[in-house]
Design brief:
The structure is a homodimer. The first copy, chain A, has helices at residues 25-41, 51-58, 62-69, 77-92, 99-106, 122-137, 151-163, 211-224, 240-255, 272-283, 297-309, 343-362, 367-371, 394-403; strands spanning 2-4, 11-13, 111-116, 141-146, 168-171, 192-196, 205-209, 230-234, 265-267, 291-294, 319-323, 337-340, 376-379, 382-384. By secondary structure, chain A is α/β, with parallel strands linked by helices. The longest helix of chain A is centred in the last third of the chain and has 20 residues, at 343-362. The interface between A and B is large, with 67 and 65 residues. Strand 4 (141-146) of chain A pairs antiparallel with strand 4 of chain B. The structure holds a DNA duplex.
Chain lengths: 404, 404
DNA sequence: CTGAAAGCGCTTACAG
DNA sequence: CTGAAAGCGCTTACAG
């Protein structure tokens, strides 16, 4: 049975149900012939122009076209003129070289993978922007992978990036799950630079914060103001950054010779809902803390939502220190005191580090660099005091002393 | 002159300046032989495993390996067992198929390009996330391109995406510049879906807002509250969305039978600094407006900064309507009245539209669909009244009446 | 300086 | 069911 279509072979075999069946033996040959005819009749603009097409039109070899377009400098004026002609025709035909074929041949890709937990988070959006811009300067493209902090998603994405043969990877590792094992990366020569967080293998270059300092700065500020009951809202302790921020928190208490109230240490996934309910729980305690530190952009949002819901006056009733430096922090009333994280700088450095590794990989004289131990750098954070912190109200202060 | 290195050929010709010179004729042959030897001695884990490598190890043909890994169902138990063996070895060697080679052969890429103005903007970050998630469900990857609303950057990125032979493109077009001409897209069969904004060619599917309604809703709300001197901060009028939002503004005035004060219509690039200085200028006028509408996420930020700098009390002294629905809008005090834009839904629809086009392109029976006119949909916006708007103070109101 | 040829790593009709 | 062969669109040593 046949039905008419507007494309070759114009008559198409269909089965009784009316569905076309290209594999139908009887029409197979006809089908192929028609496809060929169709392709020949089709205007070349409909297909992607190839080197071969250009060379055919000019009656020269594809090699010559390739060389002309790659801009090899020629000496003989005759050759130059010909190259000019080739370029003109290429432009006219809208020739766009097939970078897939080129990559396959040259075994080089100007593409890197960027793996981040969440792009709606101001902090990572900033990182993504800067990585993208820095790499664009060197003519590298970015493939964007969002993990939502799920280790399985991340493992899948690592595999995809390997299959894509990206030149390198910049990633903020997801929290690790012993159940999910990553394919051994040693097997592939793809350079990886870790940003913000470090995975436990410790085999990659990493551009990190001084997280201990970050935790310390926020806590010390509140201690100096006279707070004693300081709650801290942390990410999961399986993430090294969260552990280190806690370490900084403890260190500040130790230096101030004030004992830590373990009940005020809260930890959970980096999601606003978590920070929201954790903060509500903190506020509903009989002895509520006089200050809170929320240790990430997401956690700040949840904490602010909870404070708003309970109608807490900041900083009169409770002080708040945020982490990061989203633009809207300054638009809040009171504006938010925060531990600013130099993510822009870090993103740029991560991109440059990766580019250096990629270059070393293509340069056989740089063996030492390739096999050198991973480079880990840590960036200082900076406390920015705004309006959301002040000394604790007298009442709370006394109550706190009673607790001790 | 020679120097020793740890990689083949172990002795490397170097010139007088100590730089290595691989093209040196004398050592060229030696060099190639050594490379070969090195490659043979190298453990296969250092190279990316190929089908050929697997087939060599098992003494079978690459075809068979390819078929086994692509999971063709086999009937004979003997064949099944062999396939199992092949898969096991592949896993053991950490085989990751080269998707470049596969794409070159099959002429199909599971990669789409996403072009957006700015990823630090909450609005576009949300769009990017949803596009990425929706496409990931269908196993498509996303190449991220940020234009900063620069038409030249956009044109370059379109070219790169063509060269990458992406399966499709979702883009928020940058404002158009007559000086920059895009390569004719008709020449390539890459489907494009436009999101949020529509380029002037009107040849692509587009998923848009009802921008007239959006402008209308915000303005009508303020008019109903009794405001007459309502300033509007718009993006560049070369962007259709900005023109249409303005149209909605005018329409609301017309319906309310109130004349428009043209001096209160401000337009400029979608950047916070612009909105900031525009707003300062508005506030410094002798007859300042009693209300402002900022028609994008970026513009809202700039306007808020200016209001804060002048210490304006919102809504007592001036009312403010924002656009979009960033989470932090609700954390402001007063929380922000806004025209919410259904960007999440739109991003998902754009992704599905693109997927449908891609499928149609691979299905020769769907000619009609391919050549059908572009599909344009517009999504309704929704006014969310919060705390930043209230009727104008009596004084201002009278002053306004005096003006008329 | 140019062209013929090989080959990057796959897939897939074709012949056995 | 399997293997030999062709070919996707490029680049690039090699021989003229």
């Amino acid at each position: 049975m046949l039905c008419a279509v507007e494309r070759p072979p114009f008559l198409l075999p269909i089965d009784k149900a009316g569905r076309s069946d290209y594999t139908c033996k009887r029409y197979h040959f006809l089908w192929r012939v028609c496809i060929k005819l169709w392709e020949m009749s089709t205007s070349p603009a409909d297909q992607n122009t190839t080197l071969k097409e250009i060379s055919r039109r000019l009656g020269i070899s594809p090699s010559t076209v390739s060389r002309a377009l790659s801009g090899q400098d020629l000496k003989r004026p005759q050759a130059r003129q010909r190259a000019e002609e080739i370029r003109r025709l290429a432009a006219e035909l809208g020739y766009a070289p097939n970078s897939i074929a080129r990559s396959l041949k040259t075994n080089q890709r100007r593409l890197i993978g960027l793996i981040i937990p969440d792009i709606m988070n101001d902090y990572y959006a900033t990182a993504a922007t800067l990585v993208q811009e820095t790499l664009a300067e060197e003519d590298y493209r970015v493939m964007l992978c969002v993990t939502n902090d799920d280790p399985r998603t991340e493992a899948m994405q690592m595999r995809v990036l390997r299959e894509e043969r990206v030149a390198g990877i910049i990633r903020v590792p997801a929290p690790q799950d012993p159940a999910v094992k990553m394919a051994p990366l040693r097997a592939s020569p793809i350079p990886v630079v870790e940003l913000v967080r470090r995975s436990s293998s410790h085999q990659f270059d990493a551009v990190l914060l001084d997280d201990v300092q970050a935790g310390f700065q926020g806590t010390a500020h509140l201690l100096e103001l006279g707070h004693r009951e300081i709650a801290i809202v942390l990410g999961p302790l399986s993430v090294e950054t969260a552990r280190q921020r806690l370490e900084g928190y403890r260190l500040a208490f130790e230096r101030a010779q004030v004992p830590v109230n373990e009940a005020l240490i809260c930890s959970g996934p980096y999601r606003r809902e978590v920070a929201y309910s954790v903060t509500l729980a903190l506020l509903d305690r009989p002895h509520r803390p006089t200050a809170i530190i929320a240790t990430s952009n997401e956690l700040v949002i949840g904490t602010l939502q909870a404070l708003a819901e309970r109608g807490m006056r900041v900083p009169e009733e409770i002080s708040l220190v945020g982490f990061g430096n989203a633009d809207w922090f300054t638009l809040l009333r009171p504006s938010l005191t925060t531990v600013a994280l130099p993510i822009r700088q870090m993103a740029v450095v991560a991109a440059h580090t990766l580019l250096a590794r990629i270059r070393a990989l293509h340069d056989p004289t740089a063996v030492e660099q390739i096999e050198a131990a991973p480079v880990v750098s840590r960036y200082a954070t900076q406390l920015i005091v705004r309006q959301s912190t002040q000394p604790p109200a007298h009442g709370s202060s006394i109550r706190t002393d009673e607790c001790l």
